[in-house]
Give the backbone structure.
Amino acid sequence: MNPYQKKRRWKFFLLFFAIVIGGASVFYSDFFVKKMEREESTQFKLWVKVNEQRMKMYDNEQFIDVFEIIQKNTKMDVIITKKDGSIYLWDGLDSTKTLYRSDEKRTYDSLYFVRQLDKMKIQHQPVAMQGIDGEKLTAYYKDSFILTQLRFFPYIQLGVIALFLLTAYVAFSSARRVEQDQVWVGMAKETAHQLGTPISSLMAWVELIKSRFNAEEDPLIAEMENDVYRLEIIADRFSKIGSKPILEDHVVFLVVEKFVTYFKARASDKIKFALNGDKQVRALLSVPLFDWVVENLLKNAANAIDNEGTITIAIVENLAKEEVFIDVTDTGRGIARSKFDAVFQPGYTTRKRGWGLGLSLTKRIIENFHNGHIFVKESELGKGTTFRIVLKSSITYESTSNTGLPRVG
């Protein structure tokens, strides 16, 4: 199991653990909410009975005080309506929403009480009661403010905890990433420094061989020079890690063609290479870094081909979106659709001796330094894979057979 898969397992485990804790918290709070609902329902029924008796014995001063004491201990938001639905009495609601006329009759803020009554009808079933002289009344009530708060409390609590954990995760991840980047930058620059001396020596040895054996035109010496030059580029790449690369305007086809020519001479004879597409489209590139991208894609394509096969590089310009598409297609083993995103994760590899950093580095170079995108365009197991690079085009020149004037691509 590669490190990426282990890391993903831990994430799933932590997510499952968080869901269990959250579920337990909601379940425990729901238990108390239901218990309070039962208690409030009991209090409401007691309130109804007390007021029924109070209405029956409204002229008996001996029991009025007792009823008032009981009623105060069962304070609730209640509305009592008559048979026709009009408000008869209320208790516990906003007292400023009622007015007294000169004849001591109460008038109500109809909109406020209608809204309160609608809430009560939604929350609980009404209870029938009898008023003075056996008048049929209906009593409604709504949840207390504490019960309402308790009902939403676990969700607010989970939201706050989730926000805290997310903030902590982002902060620690950023700090760890910065620390890792500093380590990698230091190692890269030290590697470039260490490579400098032997590369200089190799360049001197090649020149000495050319002069001593009069081998200026020898193709083997030329290939040795190409390899030494390649080492020099690699050392330059490592020395520039951690610094912002300089992007320059280049013809994309020529940059890709130059590296494909170098790579083809060092690849298996059973692998055929094809490069086609627009030879005029231009883009802003850091050639040393972009060569690294092409190198990683070609190496992966070559490793995916078991015996004979073909690697095709196609360069196409999308004029409508002012973009350049670079498709690298192989006839290798292919990639499962579920792994399309995973192949760009650090540590993901299908080779026993692979580090799993090539495509991760490629994605970072394209997206962070060239403001582009790279993704698996299509793949089929046993038939091959196509990776697509999307870059912003700069200036595309028309063929000299036309006006010869540049056009914005």
User: Anything to note?
Assistant: Residues 3-143 form one domain. The mean pLDDT is 82. Residues 75 and 92 are 7 Å apart (CA to CA). Helices lie at 3-56, 61-73, 110-123, 145-212, 219-240, 252-264, 287-304, 358-369.
